[in-house]
């Protein structure tokens, strides 16, 4: 099986096997050009600022298209952790309220809620079952005082893909909001931002971009009355209003969460990468990734590995996670052979994207066989 995106589009894929997209993706050559375009625009003073605004709007539209949403419902902050922390404060949770999380969640989706325990907010932690968490598991922890459910679409830890749309069908009939982190899914499988209340994503993983942006999508049908506790000049309708030393008004759309300028080098790079993803087609990328992942899972199981990720296509995306008591040693061994995977927490993870092909999978499997024999 050939790759969907030619390896020649990326810097460095001629000298390594990159199965590391759950951590970050290889840089696109087009992103290098795009960031150079930013530097040229910067040299043009006010004309460059006009170009920046055009690129930002295009990037906002692309992010919305990838999430089946509208550009006015997209905000750009610095990173996902910042976005989640801002939302945790904006919800104004009080003593007796509770938030539901689960044990497959990344720390950025846990820590902001733990910080609210001093206010008397209860954090309910749902345990996974065989590295999966179902909507039913989560809903069993929800009651009348549950203000929010926090979950990732795809787990960084096990590769489990949650049916958040089924979860939201139940939650939208209650007062409980859903905050969905799509950092491990956007760019490789379909995402629908209006089947959640808040959707957040990082820029540098499956979106094939660089560090510097946290994407926030809001579903105004249930969140219009929520305003941030922080404010900056980009948050307000008129920063130079006559009464600016006395009062202000937030934007009515997602921009109310933006404090200042985004990272424009990131905007340029992400505008290029999201254009590429949209042209390739997320449905095509999903089929490609699921096929390669299915082959890898079957081969790993045949060889006796304890695979955490389900073999069922609708319960996984690009991350394939394997339990192993020498996970970090495996990752270091593979690194010495120019094969990039993530290793730690008693597991190693091979992440498959559109630029991967069957040769990458066979290279990984061959080296794993060598590791078991030599180490």
Automatic annotation (TrEMBL):
Its cofactor is pyridoxal 5'-phosphate. It comes from the Bacteria. Residues 42-361 form the Aminotransferase class V domain. Keywords: Pyridoxal phosphate. The keyword Zinc does not apply. Pfam families: Aminotran_5 (PF00266). This is Aminotransferase class V domain-containing protein. It comes from Gordoniibacillus kamchatkensis.
